[in-house]
Amino acid sequence: MGFMDMREWIALLEKEGELRHIRTEVDWDREIGAIARRVLEKKGPALIFENIKGYRHGRCTKLFTGGLGSRQRLALALGFPKDVDNRELVQYVMKKNRETIAPRIVATGPVKEVIVRGDDVDQHDFPVPRWQYLEGGRYIHTFSGIVTRDPDTRAMNVGIYRGMIGTRNTAPFLLIKGGQHWGQHFVKWEARGEVMPVACVLGWDPIMEFLAGSPIPAGVSEWDVAGGYRGEPAELVRCETVDLEVPASAEIVLEGFISADPGTYEKEGPFGEFTGYVSDIPTPRPTMKVTCITHRRDPIFRGCLEGTLPGSYSENSVMSSVQRAAIAWNILNGAGIPGIRDVFVPPITNGVNIHVQIKKHYQGQPKQIAAALWGNSAAQYRYKHVTVVEEDIDPSSYEQVDWAIAHRVNAGEGGIVIFPGIFGSPIDPSTPIEDRDVARLGTGLWNRVLIDATRSWKHEPRPEWGGERFPPTVRPAAEDERRVGERWQEYGLEGI
Ligand SMILES: Cc1cc2nc3c(=O)[nH]c(=O)nc-3n(C[C@H](O)[C@H](O)[C@H](O)COP(=O)(O)O)c2cc1C
Ligand SMILES: [Mn+2]
């Protein structure tokens, strides 16, 4: 299942009643972002803005956002009914993440309808929002697939990394050298004394953002995995000015390069981050120099409002709730851990918290689960708090998980385990600033926590508890529930 391009995806949303056109004039400066926030709060539809102040005419007049802003729309993008359950969707993604179909290179495509080079390049030609009033600029890359190539293997990577308009043809990015795949490429290009070629893809099959926003294993090209999801090769065209390939039916592509010379760095930030907090002061960052822009006729700009708050789930958090669960489950399977029943990532946490449901096979299994997750690079920004429950607890129910935490956790007996000083997110506001110093430490440092909310096997099974290690619950006996159910009307309790 896949879409030819973003227009086909928009057409499906329209048919499903999941899209609104906004034809009233709106300002790219703060107003679009505030509308998008309110629509997320109201669990509303995807939006196309068609009348943006200063962009009534010109190169680009439309902006699309919120396509993956609900679980229902994510299900549609993956070819499922809107009400598919977590486990089914996560298991599909686990399988598809491991399938690859290599892309096909084609001579040309709609993305080449207009080509802009050299002095004609001006990123201000696009209706790029300042999404939030505290942000340091207009964030052109919030939902772009950023393409780079490993100079050794030639494999391409596609990741979502935020970038802001600097000057007409420059864009500083949050480029972290450590865990992120383009960061690993950047280090290799730097070692060669060369600049890193970059292509930024705005708007294509939503599978692109779904894959680019979460870690597919290093060395595996997201273009190949996208082919697996689509069931046919992605059709790519060669870029004009860099040795990279991009989808032939993308809306907009910006080509260029990033130098490791700090003299080329420009200031980036503040930005409203996925945590729901606005990041620190503007910081000098690796900066893309744009050499060429190609786009479709009448292109549609694609961006997202980042940042999750209670009651308002960003596109990232909706995607992460499925993708980060699938990635974790594949890691646990790869580690050979038995008995994994379900994995749930609460969308409000973006995968910083994760709940794993198991059939307990042995004492110490929850610690093995936490160790496997924390030992994987996919844990760079995620899986800070791992909670493990047994099969009688629904991991997607806070109430059930909380009950298990209240009555099955013995913190001093290994129920709470802290793993201090391990690699982690540099953008977590709960981490002291000195532990977020990427320049000094190479990454952020986290104190991770396991909450083992499974019943301890150190407790002796007792005959009076039916051979269990924990006492029976207050639930009535099955036969009593049945009898009462049968006589419900007789009691005069029908309708209750
Ligand atoms: C909307 C959005 C914005 C993101 N911004 C950044 C960012 O600025 N820097 C970063 O390193 N990761 C960012 N991420 C997370 C990366 O996309 C994610 O870690 C992904 O795995 C990167 O691709 P890679 O694994 O191929 O490196 C963002 C994700 C989303 C969905
Ligand atoms: Mn990758």
Explain this structure.
The chain is α+β, with helices and mostly antiparallel strands and 496 residues long. Helices cover 24% and strands 22% of the residues. The chain has helices spanning 6-15, 31-41, 71-77, 86-96, 181-191, 207-212, 222-230, 315-334, 365-374, 398-408, 438-441, 478-486, and strands at residues 19-22, 46-49, 62-65, 104-105, 114-117, 139-141, 145-149, 156-159, 163-164, 170-172, 196-202, 235-238, 245-247, 252-258, 266-268, 283-285, 287-295, 300-302, 340-344, 353-358, 385-390, 416-424, 444-452. The strands form 6 sheets. Strands 5, 7, 8, 10, 11, 14 and 17 form a 7-stranded antiparallel β-sheet that branches. A 5-stranded mixed β-sheet has the order 19-20-21-23-22, with helices on both faces. Strand 19 and strand 20 form a beta hairpin. Helix 4 (86-96) crosses helix 8. The longest helix has 20 residues, at 315-334. The mean pLDDT is 96. The protein binds flavin mononucleotide and manganese (II) ion. Flavin mononucleotide (FMN) binds at residues 142-143, 157, 159-162, 174, 176, 180-182, 212-215, 304, 306, 316. Flavin mononucleotide is lined by residues 142-143, 157, 159-162, 174, 176, 180-182, 212-215, 304, 306, 316.
